[in-house]
Amino acid sequence: MNKDSRVAAAGHIRKVLTATAVAFFLIVCFFTAHAFAGVSDEYNIVINDNGREYTITTDEKQPLDILQSIGVELGEKDRLDISEFKSGSGGVISIDRFSTVIINFNNSLNSYGVYADTVGEAFDEAGINAQDCAVNYALDEAVTSGMVITVDSPNMVTVRADGKTYELGAAKGTVADSLKELKITLKGEDYVNPSLTAEVTDGMTIKVYRKETKTVTQTQTIAYGITQVKDNSLEKGESKLEKAGENGKREVTYKVVYINGKASEKTRISSTVIKEPVNEVRRIGTKSTVITPGSIDSYDKFSVGQVISGKYTHYCACEICCGKSTGTTSSGKKIKNGMDDPYYVALNWLPLGSVIEVNGSTYTVVDRGGKNLSKVGRIDIFTPAGHDAAMKGGTGTCSIKIVRLGW
Question: In degrees, to the nearest 5, what angle opens at C-alpha 35 toward C-alphas 31 and 40?
C-alpha cells in the first residue's frame, strides 16, 4: 500500500471511530438520565422507634405510608410524632410505643401503662423514685411490653398529693425531705400528715392537704308566712285567700374552707335582707253552720243523730281519682282542684244532700263512687289541694254522725 492509500485508510478509520464514540456517549447519557430520573424523588428519613433510630430512603410522602412500606406497624395506643417531619424533604418520624410494665416494688405488684423508652423513664411516668434501690434492670435498659421490673427498697414511703400517688424508695430523713425529693411544695395554708418534722419509716403514707379559704356570697329565699284573719261571714271550715304571699330574698356571706378542693367548713359572716317577704293573708270562717232539716227523717236503717264508726280516704278532681275530668259530681255540684274547700264527701250508703260530721268537721254528700263506698261507714273526702295532697291525706278510721238526710 502506497503512502497516499495509507493516509486515506487512516482517515476513514478516524471517521468511523469518531461516529462510534459519539453513539456510545449518547447511549451512556440516555441510561444515566433514566437511572437518575428513577431516584430523583427519593429522600432520607430518620425513624425513631421508641428510642431506636435508623435511616431509610423512600419516595413515599405520607408518614403512615412510609412506615407501612418498611413493615412498621402501630399499636392501638401507640403515638406518632411528625413535628420534625417534612414531606418529600426529610426529617424525623418518632414513634412512642405504649407498653404495659409490671413493677414489683417491695413485693407489691402494680401494672403501669407507659410511653417510656427506658426503665428510668418508666419510673418517672409511674411516679416511682427508685434512687438507692436495687433494680433488676439498668435504668437505661429499653422498655418492652410485659416487662417485670423488680425494685427492692430498704425504706418504702407512699406519698399522696394533688390526686396522685407517688412511691418513694430508699426514703430517709423527715417528711419534709421526702416531699422535697418529689418536688412537692406546700403553699399558704397547706398542711401534711404526718407533720413535716416527722422521721420517715418503712411503709409510711404521707398525705398532702391543700387548704384554701374563700369568701362566698349566696342569695337565699325567705319563705313568706300566713296571716289568718277570722271572718264571721264565712262558715266554719271555709277559708278565703285575701292576699297572695310573696317570698323575700337575703344575701348571706360565708367563709368557706376547702380541703383538696372540697368544702369542709362553712361559717356565716353576714346576712342582709334585700327583699322583705310579704305574708299571705287568708280569711278563716268562724260562722256556725246552720243546717236546715232534710227532706226525710230516716233512710233505710239510718236516722238523724245516729253515730257510725267509719273509714275515710281522700280524692281530688283529677282524672286519676275520678275516672273523668269534667269536674261534675253525681249531685251536679262542680269541683276543681285549687278551689276553696267546699267540704264535700262521696259515699253510696246515704242519699245525696245528706250532711255528716266527721271528727268535728261537717261535710255534704254530693258524689258517688266505686263499690267500696257502698259499705256502711266508708267515705271518700274531697281534697281541693290536688292529687299529692289527697295521697298524703291517706286513710284512717273516724267517727261519723248523721246530721241531715237528703237535701
Answer: 145
Cβ atoms of 288 and 348 closer than 8 Å: no
pLDDT per residue as tens, the chain (407 positions): 544 444 443 344 344 344 444 444 444 444 444 444 445 689 999 999 988 899 999 999 999 999 999 999 998 999 999 999 999 999 999 999 999 999 998 788 999 999 999 999 999 999 888 877 889 999 999 999 999 999 887 788 999 999 999 988 877 889 999 999 999 999 999 999 999 999 999 889 999 999 999 999 999 999 999 999 989 888 766 789 999 999 999 999 999 999 999 999 999 999 999 999 999 999 988 776 677 888 788 899 999 999 999 999 999 999 999 988 889 999 999 999 988 888 999 999 999 999 999 988 899 999 999 999 999 999 999 999 999 999 999 999 999 999 999 99
Nearest to 114 by CA among 94, 129, 96, 131: 96
Cell numbers given for 142: 429499653
pTM of the predicted structure, to 2 decimals:
0.41
Exposed / middle / buried, residue 37 (Cβ in 10 Å: 0-12, 13-18, 19+) = exposed
